[in-house]
Structure formats: C-alpha cells, structure tokens
Design a protein that fits this description.
The protein is an alpha+beta fold and 111 residues long. It has three helices and four strands, in the order E-H-E-E-H-H-E.
C-alpha cells in the first residue's frame, strides 16, 4: 500500500476552510480513480507542545504508480487545483510506501 498525507497549516478563515473542505473538496477527492480509502481530521494535536497543523488528510492507494496515475488524472488535477480555494495557510504533501508491523500482545505477561 502507498499513502498520501496532506498537512494543512492554520488558514486565514478556519470556518470557510471547514465548510468548503467538507462540502466541496472532499466530494472531488472521492472521485479520484484508484483511491482505496481516505480519512481526515480537524482535531490535530501535538504531543507535547503547540500543534503545527490545522487539519490532516490521508489517502491510500495500491502502490506509488496508482497514486501517481490518480493525481495525474483529470479528477486528480481538479483536486490539486481546488486546494487554493480553501488552504490559505498552505499545505504540505508527503507520500510513502506503508510497511506493516506487528505487536506482541503477550509482552510483559507472566507465562
């Protein structure tokens, strides 16, 4: 799997950002080809200290090629062009292949 993450800095008008993002931008995102899943939050906090971001978005694709094809599609280009309509504080976009890990649930237990 390949993940794309968008980190949004504080916008000039947080109310406009929230409204536009949910009611206009996310419906455009949902139309992107090859998109397996997506999620977002406006409740971003840092541990410890001041939160550097206003909102976060995550998208999942089968692999890097699927993500690239999706972003270069007409729908993907429309999504990218739309960011300027609400993200006045700027946005940082990162992407990476996801590596799975495991958790040892028996750690610290007596045998």
């Amino acid at each position: 799997m390949h993940k794309l993450v968008v980190l949004y800095s504080e916008p000039a008008d947080p109310g406009h950002f929230r409204d536009y993002y949910v009611n206009h931008h996310l419906p455009l995102v949902a139309q992107m080809p090859g998109l397996l899943a997506w999620r977002y939050s406006f409740d971003v906090t840092a541990m410890p200290g001041q939160t550097p971001y206003f909102a976060i978005f995550e998208a999942e694709f089968a692999d890097a090629a699927a993500m690239t094809a999706s972003r270069e599609s007409p729908e993907g280009r429309q999504v990218s062009a739309d960011v300027a309509n609400y993200a006045t504080g700027g946005a940082t976009v990162i992407h990476y292949p996801v590596q799975d890990g495991t958790v040892d649930l028996g750690r610290g237990r007596d045998a």
